[in-house]
Design a protein that fits this description.
Blueprint (H helix, E strand, L loop, with lengths): L4 E7 L3 H12 L2 E5 L3 E6 L2 E7 L10 E7 L2 H12 L3 E9 L2 E8 L5 E6 L8 E7 L7 H11 L4 E7 L16 E8 L2 E7 L12 E7 L2 H12 L4 E2 L4 E3 L5 E6 H7 L4 H12 L6 H9 L1
Pfam families: 3-dmu-9_3-mt (PF06983)
InterPro entries: Glyas_Bleomycin-R_OHBP_Dase (IPR029068), PhnB-like (IPR028973)
Keywords: Methyltransferase, Transferase, Ubiquinone
């Protein structure tokens, strides 16, 4: 499994509490514990929890599908995640799963608990919902992402018009009801949705991509900011669909974690001024 690509969840001071909550539910472990960043591992998958402040609120435009093997497993996760949370679709039997429910937990993270077959060895799969001006663009997004990253592919695609069982009336038949794709071996799902939700993609849930060198950093940055994407600060960007990515050279993490506090601090200060991360400029700051 590729742990160079992982989701980042934005918190307002409750990242640690949330990290402990998920580790308890999914039998995970905390791998980094700092005031700003908590890293956790659930089923061998990395998630980053960031105490970023009150600016961004997590919402259901990005949810996490948990693929379960037994009804008991579904029930167990459901009971804990729905405690103090908000049920978006009740736990029930649906055409696509004998036992399924969609819930927003008390920390604002949205989970789809699903009894079914795994499409890969990944148990938790981020699911992107293309809504409003992006509705109908799930296929275009999958094409962009799989073209940008190596070892990528588009897997099964279910369109609303296919067999139309449980087909919601307003959805155009060619739109994606559910699709699986992989970027550099990391699985994601996506869907189109015509409903006028009161939310959309924002910085509260982003994908982090750790890069090996400047060439890779530039390649991903340029591909994802093209055609109406937007550069932001500190390695953050938004692609043309408004979805947020963090393109982070591994060298940045090494330099920032240097035992020489003063040098590490210089690197952080240099990074804070950058949009796309320049490894050469980080090295200069480190040696200054």
């Amino acid at each position: 499994m590729n742990n160079n690509i992982f989701p980042c969840l934005w918190y307002d001071e409750d990242a640690k509490e949330s990290a402990e909550f998920y580790c308890k539910i999914f039998d995970g472990k905390v791998t980094a514990d700092t005031p700003v960043v908590m890293n956790i591992e659930l089923f061998g998958q990395k998630l980053m929890l960031l105490n970023g402040g009150p600016q961004f609120k997590k919402n259901a435009s990005v949810s996490f599908m948990v693929i379960c093997e037994t009804e008991n497993e579904v029930q167990n996760y459901w009971d804990q995640l729905s405690d103090g949370g908000l049920v978006l679709m009740p736990l029930d039997s649906y055409s696509w799963s004998k036992k399924y429910g969609w819930v927003q937990d008390k920390y604002g993270v949205t989970w789809q608990i699903f009894l079914g077959e795994k499409a890969s060895d990944q148990k938790i799969i981020p699911t992107l919902m293309f809504i409003h001006q992006n509705n109908g663009k799930a296929i275009e997004a999958m094409e962009l992402y799989t073209k940008t990253f190596p070892n990528s592919r588009i897997g099964n695609i279910l369109r609303y018009g296919d067999g139309s069982e449980g087909h919601p009336a307003p959805e155009p038949p060619e739109n994606i009801q559910h699709a699986h794709f992989e970027i550099d071996g990391y699985s994601l799902f996506c869907m189109d949705n015509s409903y006028d939700h009161q939310f959309d993609f924002n910085e509260a849930i982003s994908m982090v991509v750790m890069t090996d060198n400047q060439e890779q950093t530039d390649l991903y940055w340029n591909a994802l900011t093209a055609d109406g994407g937007r550069e932001s600060m500190c390695g953050w960007l938004k692609d043309k669909f408004g979805f947020s990515w963090q393109i982070v050279p591994k060298r940045l993490i090494q330099l920032m974690s240097d035992s020489d506090q003063e040098k590490a601090q210089k690197v952080v200060q240099a990074m804070m001024k950058m949009q796309k991360i320049s490894i050469e400029d980080l090295e200069k700051a480190y040696h200054s």
